[in-house]
Structures are given as structure tokens and as C-alpha cells.
């Protein structure tokens, strides 16, 4: 059974590469900036964040329902990014300008976005074949699902005393959902605390999967004092691919596919489920993550510049039926955090959203490792149990390419 702490990581990030069979010719990326609270509310309605009818009134023909929100509206004077076909983008742009917002097409053609930012630097990773050793796995490239599965098996073969592969369920399309458990006989005499990490919840965010792979391999193979400390004093549970169907689909069909493969319509990134824990992928994790009533919260941060201090729904955007809600109400979890990875820091497309070159994998992985060290020191070494305000801290590292590390407690998400 998982220990008294669950550390849940959900990433919003970026990636690289477009399968040759998929074309985004005619797609555009729109950057919109609301300047008043009224404009912000309208933009949220357009994006379906609030679920109101203003968008249907302003757009009776429904052009905007085919738009995908890459960065949802959150705060006045903070840009939002929306993706869609040229016709829908034109309608939406005129609509937003008529409301007094700034709306600019910053990518004229979707294929150009990928060609310029990702494909020029992307080389198909070498196939990781059965029988290969972990040392032969290229952590500086993005990998297909079957290669990740082979790596997990190789890790178990090379570390049989500390690695266990647990199949906790199947996806909608029948793929195994695997948890990699890392637990050694060394370290603490008393029961160890357990950290649960999820990667790749949103399938198009390849940097999430790559970060998880790097973290796992480094945890198991590094002889550094810190890696040994983390390896021996915590039981780790890692889901490297939380959404295997969607991830496979991003390689073979639609590079920007976000959700699972079980719900229509295909033109919408987020869908309303007909019941709680409706997805097979989440149901599998539900069976492993139930454990003391969450009575405390913790705000923690690392990095440099302070970007914000508030609830997730205010600094990012309001969402319904998320794993944050579920963790708060259904599990016995002491602390839970979300980590926002590298991307377009100021929403100007200095780094294209969801098109992060593979050269960013190692820098991102190092930043993530440093963050986990902070959490380990506070939760395990310092045995953090004190109550704290139900807030989260958003900080960014000094690197101009780093968006932020969001550390927010799912266990007590709302202030009350």
C-alpha cells in the first residue's frame, strides 16, 4: 500500500515533432489579451472555462466551438492562446476586437510553426529494442510508447531487487497502465513515505513523459549522494504514461491531441464526463491512490522570481472535475502538488507552445529534479506536518525559457 504521502504531478508543457502523415496546413494560432474584467469574462466564456451562454450569443453559428485553447484566459492583461482553422480564427479575432481586446494571429500556418521550431532540430530517436540495456536509451530525445514500455522492462531486469512493474488497469483502447515502483531495502528502518508521480496526463505534452523518464533513470542509476538518499528513503510510485492511448495518437495521427481516446467530439480539448472517474485511465489510478483524511496543506517553492500567490483557479484557469477535486475529496493524502514545466513563459511564442525542441529535455529534467529535492527535504527530512494556508506559490527559475513551477496542494485546494 502506498505510504502516507502522495505526490501527484500533472504537467502542462511543450514538445517537438510532427508525424509526416498529419498536416496542420490552414491552422492558425491566435493571441488574445483582455484588458478589463468584462473582457476577461467574455473570453473565458468563449473558451468554455465558465460554461455560460455568452459565447453562444456572440457566436450563434458556433465557429468558436472548434477552437482549441492552448493557454486559457486567466488574468486581465495576460495573453491567451487559441488554435484553430483559419476561418474560425478570423471570426473569433473580429469578435474579440469588437469587444475591445487585442487579438493577433501570431502563427499564420500550423505547419510552419512545427517546421521552424521543432522539425528542424528533431531527429527520430534510435529504436530502443528488446534486449538493449538502460544505458543505451537516449534520454535527450522523445520516444514512442513502445520504447518507454521496453525501458521499464529493462529497468526491472537490471534492478530486480528495487524495481517492480505493477499493471493497475487498462486504457480505453486496451493498453496497460503501468506503475513503476522503486523501493530498496536500504535506508530508513521505520516505514518509508510514499511518493506517487504521474506524467503525461495530457498526451501532447511530451516534455512531461521525457522528464519522468529522466527522473526515473537518474533515481535508479546515479551514484550521487542525493540520488542514493532519495532512492533509499522513499518508496516511489511512477506512472510514466498516464494517457497511453492519447500519447500513441499524438505520434501517429494528431500531434496536438490532448485527452484520452474515449470521448467525442474530437475538435474539443476538454469534455464533460457523464460521471465521476469516467475514464479507464483515471479509474486505474483511483484504485491505487486511496489512503488519512487530508487535513493540511503546504505551500513551497523554489526558483527565482515570484509570479503569483493564489488558488490554481485564479492564477491559471478554472476547471471542473479535475484530479485536484478528486484528491481533495476522495483520498487520504497529506500533500499533493502540480508542476508546470517549460514552455512559452510570457505567452509571446518565444518558445512555441507544445513544440519544445528536444534540446530542452535535459535542462527541464534538471530543474524538476531540483524541485523534488526541495520537497523531499521538507516532507521526509524535516518531517513536515504543520498546517498551512491553503494557497500555492508560483515561482519561475532564472532561466528565461522556464515558465514556472507550480506547487499547489490538491489536498486542500480551496480556501475555507
TrEMBL record:
It comes from the Eukaryota. One of its GO terms (molecular function) is zinc ion binding. Its cofactor is Zn(2+). Keywords: Carboxypeptidase, Disulfide bond, Hydrolase, Membrane, Metal-binding, Metalloprotease, Protease, Signal, Transmembrane, Transmembrane helix, Zinc. InterPro entries: CARBOXYPEPT_ZN_1, M14A-like_propep, Peptidase_M14. Residues 141-416 form the Peptidase M14 domain. GO terms for cellular component: extracellular space. Pfam families: Peptidase_M14 (PF00246). PANTHER family: PROTEASE FAMILY M14 CARBOXYPEPTIDASE A,B, SLL0236 PROTEIN. Belongs to the peptidase M14 family. This is Peptidase M14 carboxypeptidase A domain-containing protein.
